[in-house]
Design a protein that fits this description.
Helices cover 34% and strands 15% of the residues. The protein is globular and about 80 Å long. β3 and β4 form a beta hairpin. It has twelve helices and 19 strands. With 488 residues, the protein is of the alpha/beta class. The strands form six sheets. Strands 1, 5, 6, 7, 8, 9, 13, 14 and 17 form a nine-stranded mixed β-sheet that branches. It has a two-stranded antiparallel ribbon with strand order 2-11. A two-stranded antiparallel ribbon has the order 3-4. The protein has two domains: 95 residues, no CATH class; 375 residues, Alkaline Phosphatase, subunit A, CATH 3.40.720.
């Protein structure tokens, strides 16, 4: 039977490809998408008593591990002790290679207080410094792994394992979409390349595949291979669609409960709609010159990365504008990622931190300003952060002379939230005098994700998916704590 079915399946796939290539008309399976999201919305409505403070989420994921003591967590003692031995106070497991570990490494950057809140910000972030009164900073984020892939998985999936649903997929599953012509979860990846974990930050795992993030490109066609081709006479195309719709109905009736097949059909339908809606949503020619300049579009960088390839702010600026345009049109979650692991500065920190900051500083600040000016910041939660922080000692990689960096540190990191019911100008948590470990109000990754869900009106306990007799959750079996101190 298996061999007899193979040609039939292959022919059906070919028929799908031929008949649906370039579809831009009426839905073949529109009710399917609606059913997916309608059921998800029901789950969201029963997810908890709190009213949502935000209806959309923008994730600014800073892959690589930004250095907290060089960006948002100043440590004067670090500079006073610069050059003194400190390795004996660390656990041997805290550094990747003890032979590369140096002495205390003071920050090469100046810090100043900004805004009415008096928030301390490094000189590498002059634009973000101007909007600190809209941001709530958490200086006490704690991860569990010092290795990039497991830490990235934990930040997005709640566990250090691969192939699990991500935060964006959980939100899509819980809330559905406000615009059936656009995906509920969109990813704007970097033209310079994927993150070190590839597409892992937007997978749907065991959730229905329709909740996986949809990659939209910031250059060229928004979606690869989504171009209308000659379809023949209109009547012929319409007849083909009708026939295909009937075949779908027969196939689904005889083979119920096949989420992957249903998601494939739904994705074809969504692709048809995206031919029009995605192009319009990502069309920056509709933006004013003043807006483009505010974000830093076409701006060149005076810095170039030495450890990693780091481009100027143009691409990141374009994607921040696109994120705002997508949120305006009802997209639930937009994730903006950067290439490789930009903030992973094991060497050349003094140069490369300038380069990475220059790429992201102006676009991020402009995004917050733009959302606020348009009345969207109150309903949009913006989150910024990486998978862990850095150590207070220098790291000297082999064959790299006089170019100190910092090694990974899972015990302390800084992240922040803005908009979406967050208390602007708030500061939560603290690290020790060198920024090595959290000493006040630790925030776990589960706490962080539970807080995001809470602001979106989802209770972390009630948002679950039954699998193998278990209720799977983003926050796992832990009892996370919503960080209410940073909420308005």
């Amino acid at each position: 039977m298996q061999q007899a079915n193979q040609p039939q399946n292959a022919n059906r796939r070919n028929f799908f490809s031929t008949a649906l290539n370039g579809v831009a008309g009426a839905a073949l399976t529109g009710c399917l998408l609606d059913d997916f999201f309608a059921s998800s919305t029901l789950a969201a409505e029963s997810s908890g008593p709190q009213e949502p403070r935000a209806k959309s989420l923008i994730q600014l994921f800073m892959n690589g591990g930004p250095s907290q003591m060089d960006l948002f967590d100043p440590k004067p003692l670090l500079n006073q002790l610069h050059g003194r031995p400190y390795l004996n106070k660390l656990s041997a497991s805290d550094v990747q290679d003890p032979e590369q570990a140096g002495n205390v490494f003071g920050s090469p950057y100046q810090f100043r207080q900004h805004g009415e809140s008096g928030m301390w910000v490094s000189e590498v972030f002059p634009h973000i410094a101007e909007v600190v009164d809209d941001i709530a900073f958490v200086r006490s984020l704690v991860a569990t792994s010092p290795s990039h892939p497991p830490a990235v998985y934990e930040m997005h999936c709640g566990k250090t394992e691969a192939n699990l649903p991500t935060l964006g997929s959980w939100v899509s599953y819980g809330l559905g979409t406000e615009n059936k012509n656009l995906p509920s979860f969109v990813v704007l990846d970097d033209p310079d390349g994927l993150p070190v974990t590839g597409t892992a930050t937007w997978q749907s795992g065991y959730l229905p595949p329709v909740h996986q993030g949809t990659r939209l490109r910031s250059q060229g066609s928004p979606i690869l291979n989504l171009h209308a081709q000659e379809q023949g006479p209109t009547d012929f195309v319409a007849a083909g669609r009708d026939l295909l719709s009937k075949l779908d109905n027969i196939h689904q009736r005889d083979r119920p409960f096949q989420p992957r097949l249903d998601a494939r059909i739904a994705s074809y339908e969504l692709a048809a709609r995206l031919q029009v809606t995605a192009s319009e949503a990502l069309d920056l020619s509709r933006e004013s010159r003043a807006t483009l300049e505010m974000y830093g579009v076409d701006r060149k960088s005076p810095y170039s990365g030495r450890l990693h390839a780091i481009s100027g702010p143009d691409s990141y600026a374009r994607r921040c504008i696109m994120a705002r345009r997508l949120i305006e049109r009802g997209v639930r979650v937009v994730q903006i990622v950067i290439n490789s692991q930009l903030w992973d500065m094991h060497s050349h920190l003094e140069n490369d931190l300038w380069a990475a900051s220059y790429k992201t500083d102006q676009p991020v600040a402009a995004l917050l300003r733009d959302l606020k000016q348009r009345g969207l910041l109150d309903s949009t939660l913006v989150v910024w952060g990486g998978e862990f922080g850095r150590l207070p000692i220098a790291q000297f990689q082999r064959d790299v002379a006089n170019a100190a960096g910092r090694d990974h540190n899972q015990f302390a990191a800084t992240a922040w939230m803005a908009g979406g019911g967050v208390k602007g100008g708030a500061l939560h948590g603290a690290t020790d005098d060198l920024g090595y470990r959290v000493v006040e109000n630790p925030v776990s990754i589960a706490d962080w994700n539970a807080t995001i869900l809470h602001q979106l009106g989802l209770h972390h306990d009630n948002l679950f998916f039954e699998r193998r007799g278990l209720k799977e959750r983003l926050t796992g079996v832990e009892r996370p704590r919503v960080v209410r101190e940073i909420l308005a």
